[in-house]
């Protein structure tokens, strides 16, 4: 384990140096952390101290120095940077592997007064290859908790925030635990600004291109034979949203993907399909509406349905993006441009 050296300063027998340690802590100027085990220390630093440099870049008036198994932190935000190091060591002790992206997310959470080790250590599902799926941001953690505790959960946010991926993981977990009898995947068949024309084949072949992201998640989490077997047995069902009309879906985990491309009528139809023992997750990105006329069934829903028990809305943002860091920068740039355009419209009006 690890500890801050100021912890010993809080014992009943305090020396002069102990009092100095307390003064340093209160002024947020200096913290020393001891890490037990060379194996942890090597993984904590990263190649050529890469991870320490990431921390210093985020705390520009703070410096980190390593001597043996001791990390000394000095500067204006030494205590905060020390919490980051402490959280990273806890994660290493639980078997997580660090990378620069995870270190950055850890800093984001510490700055938001969150405990990264609690967020990142929440296991959702273990894939067929043995990989453990976990939340990678505080927003994703809230999203997973909402799915676990509500009948219907709306996950709204930009591309790359794991909305569909985590929904599939929760569906497989519920199926594995016997909480539901089947998984139903659906989405509106709307092209992203293109007209693809007539699609050949049977129903599954026609819908397949639209549901490919959900298929990808299934194949990533289970082996291909497992997916084929589940679909042949009807345990996993794939259908376009239009085919939901008139059905009552009991004991099922239903995922409606790309919900921003539903019409208000389609959204009402879908939400009233939910039967006993079922759970539904509705995902969408309100900034990428392709439905004709822009009349989306996802817009304004929180105002209409927000007070209903058993129904939750979770909004994810750029800090929840888990793809390449450039995706987060792109999302931020578009949001900034959108804010500027809205401000300009308000000034003109």
Short description:
The chain has helices at 16-26, 38-45, 50-58, 78-93, 100-111, 116-120, 138-149, 163-176, 203-207, 212-221, 224-232, 264-271, 301-305, 325-348; strands spanning 2-4, 30-35, 62-67, 70-75, 125-126, 132-133, 152-156, 182-187, 236-240, 252-256, 279-284, 311-315. The protein is of the alpha/beta class. Helix 12 links the parallel strand 10 and strand 11 (279-284).
Written overview of the protein:
With 349 residues, the protein is of the alpha/beta class. The chain has 2 domains: 2-120, K Homology domain, type 1 (Ribosomal Protein S8, Chain: A, domain 1, 2-Layer Sandwich), CATH 3.30.1370.10; 125-340, Rossmann fold (3-Layer(aba) Sandwich). It contains 14 helices and 12 strands. It has helices spanning 16-26, 38-45, 50-58, 78-93, 100-111, 116-120, 138-149, 163-176, 203-207, 212-221, 224-232, 264-271, 301-305, 325-348, and strands at residues 2-4, 30-35, 62-67, 70-75, 125-126, 132-133, 152-156, 182-187, 236-240, 252-256, 279-284, 311-315. It has a 6-stranded parallel beta sheet with strand order 9-8-10-11-7-12. Strands 1-2-4-3 form a 4-stranded antiparallel beta sheet. The protein has a two-stranded antiparallel ribbon with strand order 5-6. Helix 3 (50-58) packs parallel to helix 5, helix 4 (78-93) packs across helix 5 (100-111) and helix 7 (138-149) crosses helix 8. The radius of gyration is 24 Å and the shape is elongated. 35% of the residues are buried.
